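User: Is it possible to get a 3D structure for a protein together with its bound compound? The compound here is pyridoxal-5'-phosphate. I've pasted both below.
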Amino acid sequence: MSFDAAVYQYSHLTVDHQRHQVDAALTAGRIATLGARYIPRLERRAAALLGRAEAIAVDSGSSGLVLALRGLGVRPGQEVIIPEVGWVSMGAAAAALGAGVRVAAVTETLTPTWEQIAPLITPATGAVILAHLRGRPAPDTPRIAAELSARGIPLVEDCAQAWGVTAAGRPAGAWGQAAVLSTNTYKIIATGEGGLVLADEPRMLGFMRAVAGDTRQPTPQAVWRGKSRMNELTAALALPQLDFLPTLLDSLRALQQHVISALATVEGITGLAPATAEDTSQSNGSLVGMWLPTATHAEQAANTLSRAGFGCWWPGPGDLHTAAAWPVQPEQPVVDVRRYLDVQIPWLPAGEHAAFAHQLAATLTAALKESPC
Ligand SMILES: Cc1ncc(COP(=O)(O)O)c(C=O)c1O
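Assistant: Yes, that's possible. Here is the predicted structure of the complex:
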């Protein structure tokens, strides 16, 4: 059975509404950031979603990370702690400011706990970046936020992959001093390129707005200003997707539940995530993660799933989401992340959910039986 109605690029679901908004902006000759109408609306909506005072719409999540670190005062001679899995631009943001990078190993959750971060902290630590990955929260977020706060070290939450995710009862992105969202084409809200940086502290927000290129934003002293603002057409693409997000998440979580139940019986899979009903409700429903016996099993399963038309991700060689492809490595890895694999949950009519989950489980079972190990 093929699932022709499966939509993996969720932005396709609101194309008509997006087209209408882009048309309105073009017709009004309103495409710049200055004088924009959709951009401030998107910024207010994103800030409300994460429970932050303000959001600044930018051209990418990567720009958002640089702005967040710059807004927090990270400077040459300091160090930024980043997780072993995330995206290469976390370390690049620190390096761009002349700071050193230390990499915290991740656990089976694909995120570090406080135990992996604490030994890396020194008087030079200027900030810690914690990423909520694969549509799920970093489970140790409350403890990490509390321990860092007690030491006066700022926390940046990388929420590029975490639209609609909750961490311990609060939105992912509501725990640290700054949060970053991405709207690149692989994200739940996808505009090609784009991002937002969020914070609460008015001086930090004003500074980030200024250095991002808002020419109306004064600063106490003259500063070098760059240009990384989002344009109006990008915001026009994002807003309808944000309106649709609750409906999308309901559908994804329903299918995610079917997939988790079906995969629970597949021999060789451990560490299915989300694991519990509560975990499912905290996730955005877009992925189901698992650990396979070896990296070879994971690679083979990824190849078989892709050939069968399922969306999946395996962090193989050269993947810029993992430290293996970065210039700095974790000192003491905890897990071999190449054993991890996740499958993407498509938008699919509810009547096809059970069959989809069944076929996915059958494909994975066959792949694991074939695996040479
Ligand atoms: C965890 C994480 N952080 C940051 C980014 C960077 O976002 P962007 O592609 O919008 O620069 C990504 C993008 O893949 C990501 O997955």
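Residues 60-62, 86-87, 89, 131, 158, 160-161, 182, 184, 195 surround pyridoxal-5'-phosphate (CB under 6 Å). The chain is about 40% helix and 15% strand.
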